[in-house]
Automatic annotation (TrEMBL):
<keyword id="KW-0560">Oxidoreductase</keyword>
<feature type="binding site">
    <location>
        <position position="161"/>
    </location>
    <ligand>
        <name>NADP(+)</name>
    </ligand>
</feature>
<comment type="similarity">
    <text>Belongs to the short-chain dehydrogenases/reductases (SDR) family.</text>
</comment>
<feature type="binding site">
    <location>
        <position position="67"/>
    </location>
    <ligand>
        <name>NADP(+)</name>
    </ligand>
</feature>
<keyword id="KW-0443">Lipid metabolism</keyword>
<comment type="function">
    <text>Retinol dehydrogenase with a clear preference for NADP. Converts all-trans-retinal to all-trans-retinol. May play a role in the regeneration of visual pigment at high light intensity.</text>
</comment>
<dbReference type="GO" id="GO:0006703">
    <property type="term" value="P:estrogen biosynthetic process"/>
</dbReference>
<protein>
    <recommendedName>
        <fullName>Retinol dehydrogenase</fullName>
        <ecNumber>1.1.1.300</ecNumber>
    </recommendedName>
</protein>
<dbReference type="GO" id="GO:0052650">
    <property type="term" value="F:all-trans-retinol dehydrogenase (NADP+) activity"/>
</dbReference>
<keyword id="KW-0521">NADP</keyword>
<feature type="active site" description="Proton acceptor">
    <location>
        <position position="157"/>
    </location>
</feature>
<dbReference type="GO" id="GO:0004303">
    <property type="term" value="F:estradiol 17-beta-dehydrogenase [NAD(P)+] activity"/>
</dbReference>
<feature type="domain" description="Ketoreductase">
    <location>
        <begin position="7"/>
        <end position="193"/>
    </location>
</feature>
<feature type="binding site">
    <location>
        <begin position="13"/>
        <end position="41"/>
    </location>
    <ligand>
        <name>NADP(+)</name>
    </ligand>
</feature>
<feature type="binding site">
    <location>
        <position position="144"/>
    </location>
    <ligand>
        <name>substrate</name>
    </ligand>
</feature>
<keyword id="KW-0716">Sensory transduction</keyword>
<dbReference type="GO" id="GO:0004745">
    <property type="term" value="F:all-trans-retinol dehydrogenase (NAD+) activity"/>
</dbReference>
Amino acid sequence: MANSGQKVVLITGCSSGIGLRIAVTLATDEKKRYHVIATMRDLKKKDKLLEAAGDVYGKTLMLLPLDVCSDESVRQCINSVKDRHIDILINNAGVGLLGPVESISIEEMKRVFDTNFFGVVRMIKEVMPDMKKRRSGHIVVMSSVMGLQGVVFNDVYTASKFAMEGFCESMAVQLLKFNIRLSMIEPGPVHTEFETKMMEEVAKMEYPGVDADTIRYFKDVYLPSSIDIFEAMGQTPEDIAKCTKKVIE
Ligand code: NDP
């Protein structure tokens, strides 16, 4: 349980990558300012987080299951937090989708929107009433540079982040009246499983129904140059976690 001086921080998508690193960075804060509720949709994946967090588990770090695509899971998770009191919500969970749009089904596109856009909306709707009552709170959203600029072969991912940016910009104005801050973080390329998994998978895939020129451009030009960009400019999850800590301080 949080001490009176500690801020309760709930983070989504802590099984890997940026979310895991934010959870560890805040839970190991040298001044113990944060009581971190790290959530993940499958608690069987908790070992990597617990290993990285060391002995703070059970002290400044606790775990809860949460699937941001499920209304019921979101409700249950927030209800299980003492007095539903969350000072800082960090919406980090997200999925990518890369490839020629002709090769992507509407169902896959909906999954991306359900996670990256409606996942954030569900969380904000659930925590907002209690933050409004207390007239305090901070909501952080992990967007992307792709929430600001369209990027070829990332059409649907980009659209989901644009949608979230629009939603959050509008919400930020309403929330300010209640002394609730809403911040967006827009990282460029970050070396995580997210990016590696995606690039490896798409490079192996066949693209039936897509014209040969597009496939050639995608596989021979786009993918190698993206990998180069990740290698040359890629930040680490630690960089983004430090930035997130600065944003909430
Ligand atoms: P990872 O794939 O490493 O992590 C994504 C996390 O989101 C995982 O914990 C995953 O859980 C979780 N997640 C996915 N779907 C759900 C769901 N329905 N409910 C709860 N959790 C879910 O990727 P990153 O750490 O890179 O991505 C984190 C965020 O950063 C995303 O929002 C992404 O868009 C954003 N971002 C990433 C960049 C990058 O280059 N990597 C650049 C800019 C922004 P599970 O293990 O169960 O799949």
